[in-house]
Amino acid sequence: MCYDVAIIGAGVTGAMTARLLSSYKLKTVLLEKANDVAMGASKANSAIVHAGFDAKTGTLKSKLNVEGCRMMPEICRELSVPYKNNGSLVVAFSDEELVTIQELYDRGVANGVDRMEIIDQKKLRELEPNISPEAKGALLAASAGIVCPYELTIAATENAVSNGVAFQRNAGVTSVDDLGDFFRLHTAAGDVDAKYVINAAGCASDDIARLFGDDSFKLIIRSGEYYVLDRSVGNTVSHTIFQCPSAMGKGILVTPTVDGNLLIGPTATDIDDKENTATTAKGLETVRRLAMKSVPCVSTRDAITSFAGLRAHPTSDDFIIGISDANHRLINAAGIESPGLSSAPASAKMICEALFEAMGAEPAKNEAFNPIRKEPVRFRHLSDSEREKLIQENPAYGRIICRCETITEGEIIDSIKAPAGARDVDGVKRRTRAGMGRCQGGFCGSKVVEILARELDLPINEITKFGGGSNILFDKTK
């Protein structure tokens, strides 16, 4: 089969693009080098839907951020993804920083951001009683929100697959042949033919572009380290709390998550290794120290885990979206760093517009397209009567596997059987939250392995944590 379009990279940008393309009569395939979607920046970021005041006026970042922020509530409603419009605060700790937040306000106005105001110390403390007494004021952006980035990516992929998009995992592209009317993509999972290619490969998008003869851009890989704190301190703040930005980014933030935890971070360190997601003692200490500058009562004694994410910083300091000068059948969607998550719905729209320009016309609409993803069972949120009814219909929902997060066997089975469903322990974790509580899978992990083996009809020693060589069990000892 020769596909009309191949999308390389199943992060949030690739997944949202695949979903939008599924609303057209096109044969589309979504290729991912890892064992699951959202395995790059889309599973390890700040989970913020930014208002759009930070990016320089006139850039793609500013345009797509503001547009994407406005689109996000409806997208999340259609995909049954939790979203919260909690607003953000950029806090000033000096007279100089008060000048900076005025500049951010003015930039936000120029970018088209609405519902912004600069507030004084008194109102700031009314909104956030735990804010540092050193804070002098803040920029309040009421349109900002929070979302789960990997759940959004998973949901968009599920919806795309339900509407006809093919999904291939473990299909990293290693080389490309241009055969005139189509490309032959050589992948780890076999060859894939496609007339047009969308390069949404995240940190590897410059490497992918070079396979097509495009060396027009270069990415700097920037690592950011975070702590996740227990739900018991999840209400320490209600808004997303930023410090004044620097040349390296938006600085250390303190924010609630849609699942009730507290997130602090990230650092910003340029690295050479595109696969290095290790945390460091120095980086995590920086997160702790600077988070306490904003909210002194924050304590990493409440941390349940830490992680690092990589972002693809383009030397142009702006998103790279459009038809490649090297080959008009290649569409680049590269350098999608923050606010890439916020921009994703709008970025997908722009990517498709570039694709249709390359094609010479917009394809016919897919009349059967259904934008709605059915909401998965979230047992922990159900009433007692709803739980009782569900268990009567399927007893698997009556067996609690993850006690920390109240996740049932039925939910785990659903996550495996879903379109582009879970194939490893971390895939189940991201879809259901089994293993995301205080014990971090210490009690439920072995049960999840057993369920995966049973439902996938695989030997238990072939079940992995996150694909590749991450096998959990190797052989029986008795």
**CATH superfamily annotation of the domain at 85-145 and 220-314:** D-Amino Acid Oxidase, subunit A, domain 2
The level-1 CATH class of the domain at 85-145 and 220-314: Alpha Beta
First and last CA, distance: 47 Å
Shape: globular
Averaged pLDDT, please?
Answer: 97
Total strands: 22
Q: What percent of residues are in strands? A: 15-25%
| CATH architecture classification name of the domain at 85-145 and 220-314 | 2-Layer Sandwich
CATH topology of the domain at 85-145 and 220-314: D-Amino Acid Oxidase, Chain A, domain 2
How many helices in DSSP terms? 12
Low-pLDDT ranges: none
Kindly name the structural category.
alpha+beta
Q: For this entry, what is the oligomeric state of its chains?
A: single chain
What is the C-alpha radius of gyration, as a whole number of Å? 22 Å
Structure description:
This protein is an alpha+beta fold and 478 residues long. Among the domains are: 85-145 and 220-314, D-Amino Acid Oxidase, Chain A, domain 2; 379-462, Arc Repressor Mutant, subunit A (Orthogonal Bundle), CATH 1.10.10. The chain contains twelve helices and 22 strands. The strands form five sheets. Strands 1, 2, 9, 10, 11, 12, 19 and 20 form an eight-stranded mixed sheet that branches. Strands 13, 15, 16, 17 and 18 form a five-stranded antiparallel sheet that branches. It has a four-stranded mixed sheet with strand order 6-7-5-14. Strand 1, helix 1 (12-21) and strand 2 (28-31) form a beta-alpha-beta unit. Helix 1 packs parallel to helix 5. The protein is globular, with a radius of gyration of 22 Å. It starts with a strand and ends in a 22-residue tail after the last helix. 51% of the residues are buried.
